[in-house]
Amino acid sequence: MIELKNVSTIYDDSLMALRGINLKIGQGEFVSLVGPSGAGKSTLLRLLTREISPQEGEVVLDSVDLATLSSGEVPVLRRKIGTVYQDFKLLSNKNAFENVAFALEVCGVDEDQVKDDVPKVLNIVGLSDKVNSFPHQLSGGEKQRLAIARALIHRPRIILADEPTGNLDMVNAHDVVELLMKINKLGTTVILATHNREVVNAIGKRVVTMEKGKIVRDQGDNGKYVI
């Protein structure tokens, strides 16, 4: 499903962010992408949404090299992928319903479908009782669950979670990870980028460790984040 073939990226100042990355991720996998800050985790995720392109190698999704996509095809790619960030990226002037609905409205989805789909997704993430709440009225854990609801609204095949527990205490971090695992059990591929050892080791799934832009370890089920 996802394959990176000998991928390297170089920033404008000639700093190499990724070096010769080779990685395959199958449909329905849960992969924890771990390593210290600056290891290249976020850069790898940005390649998958084609926010950036590699200077060397290929990034392939469903047998298509992402470099061959036209500008008009990139939004279609991104609707296959839901992205969750550490800082939530919620719209402060919109309530929970409106934050999720906005992701559909910008794609031209009709109002009836929005009214039908948004409550279903809010129910999945446990926020049915927060429909009219604004971000400032939500806890950190609720904000992240709302961000996950927004990522789910297009029924993506892949969820990319970039340090989603970074601003949360351990209780809320556990709840968010449990939600990601629930989503994964429904068949969605999940790639979790984090440096939180406790979170990764509690998941007990495949662990890919990065250091200085390289993959240095790739462990299957029951993998551990070790140094």
Describe the structure.
The protein has 227 residues and is α/β, with parallel strands linked by helices. The chain has a domain at 91-155. 32% of the residues lie in helices and 26% in strands. The protein contains seven helices and ten strands. It has helices at 41-48, 74-78, 96-105, 111-124, 140-152, 170-185, 197-203; strands at residues 2-10, 16-25, 30-34, 56-61, 64-65, 81-85, 158-162, 189-194, 206-211, 214-219. The strands form two sheets. It has a six-stranded mixed β-sheet, with helices on both faces. The protein has a four-stranded antiparallel β-sheet with strand order 2-1-4-5, covered by helices on one side. A hairpin with a 2-residue loop joins strand 9 (206-211) and strand 10 (214-219). Helix 3 crosses helix 4, helix 3 (96-105) runs parallel beside helix 5 and helix 4 (111-124) crosses helix 5 (140-152). It is globular and about 45 Å long. The relative contact order is 0.19.
Principal-axis shape: globular
Number of strands: 10
How far is the N terminus from the C terminus? 29 Å
Largest sheet properties:
6 strands, mixed
Report the total helices.
Answer: 7
Radius of gyration: 17 Å
Supply the helix-strand structural class: alpha/beta
**Biggest β-sheet: strands ordered side by side in the sheet:** 6-7-8-3-9-10
Order of helices and strands: EEEHEEHEHHHEHEHEE
% residues in beta strands = 25-35%
What is the residue-mean pLDDT, rounded to a whole number? 92
**Level of helix content?**
25-40%
- Uncertain runs are none
Function: Part of the ABC transporter FtsEX involved in cellular division.
Domain ABC transporter: 2-227
Subcellular location: Cell membrane
Membrane topology: Peripheral membrane protein
